[in-house]
Amino acid sequence: QLLGFKKFIPPYANLNGANILKGVNYASGGAGIRDDTSKTTMALHDIGARKYVLVGLGDLGCTPNAIITHRKTDGTCVVEQNAAAAIFDTKLKSLVDNLNNKFSADSTFIISNSSPASANKNSNGFLVINAPCCPSYDIGGLCIPDEKPCSNRNEYVFWDQFHTTEAWNQVIATRSYNSFKHLVEQETKMELEPINEITSQLSASS
């Protein structure tokens, strides 16, 4: 919505053939084009992509499923899972730094942290950060059909035991968009400065 799309990008499971070329949400359903993030990024660069946002795993141990599965009765995060996710995020940051150095002339890479652990209870109105809004299955963690979800869903970070609510997604989307927008504005300004200088010189000479 912030980018001006009239329709949401459809999930990969609903498309096939040439329709995939119009844009696909591979994140829906936890799917990806390739397992190797670096190779995928290079492939996108080869076909013209120049501005990238790579999203880290965040604190997976803070999802309701992790907390419930590991019987954390006090609602605290699972340290072991967060540590494992941190290994990936550290390598992803290193990859982003390397890509920015390698393609500094024509490309921009940024990393976004969507971790619910970065949400304070009093930040942006979120009061519940470690429990799902909807009644969910013990195994699988998804919402139980026909069960009534919480009435104050804007105060919850998680919809079910894995997926975040629209309210939290909007916070992350706005944060990522504003960060990316700032970089784009900087690049546009740098690109326009030589043009403006030439224009000024031409005006002065005439």
Automatic annotation (TrEMBL):
GO biological process: lipid catabolic process
Primary location group: secreted
Keywords: Hydrolase, Lipid degradation, Lipid metabolism, Secreted, Signal
UniProt keyword annotation of Acyltransferase present: no
Gene Ontology CC terms: extracellular region
Matches recorded under Pfam families: Lipase_GDSL
InterPro entries: GDSL (IPR001087), GDSL_esterase/lipase (IPR051238), SGNH_hydro_sf (IPR036514)
Localization (cell): Secreted
GO MF terms held by the record: hydrolase activity, acting on ester bonds
Family: Belongs to the 'GDSL' lipolytic enzyme family.
Protein name from the UniProt record: GDSL esterase/lipase
